[in-house]
Amino acid sequence: MSLLVVGLSHRSAPVSVLERAALTADAQVKLVQDTVAAEPATEAAVLATCNRIELYADVDKFHAGVAELSTLLALHSGVGLDELTPYLYVHYEDRAVHHLFSVACGLDSMVVGEGQILAQIKDSLARAQELHSAGRLMNDLFQQGLRVGKRAHSETGIDRAGQSLVTFGLEQLAAGGDVQTWARGKKALVIGAGSMSSLAAATLARAGVTEIVVANRTHDRAERLAQIVTENDETDVVARAVPMDAVSRELTRADVVISCTGATGLVLTAETVAAAVEGRTGEPVAEIDAPSAAKQPSAATGAGTGVGGDENCPLDLTAEQSGFSVMGEAAVAGMAAAELEQHAAWVDNGTVDRRDAVRRTPEAEAELIGALAAAAARFGRIPERRRPEPVAGFVRPAPALFLLDLAMPRDIDAAVHRLAGVRLVDIESLAEASADAPMAADVDQVRRIVSDEVAAFGAAQRAAHITPTVIALRTMAADVVASEIARLDGRLPGLDERQRGEIRQAVHRVVDKLLHAPTVRVKQLAAEPGGAGYADALRTLFDLDPETVAAVSRAVDSTDTKDRPA
Question: Which of 2, 322, 337, 450 could covalently link to 376 via disulfide, CB atoms 3.0 to 4.6 Å apart?
Answer without folding.
Answer: 337
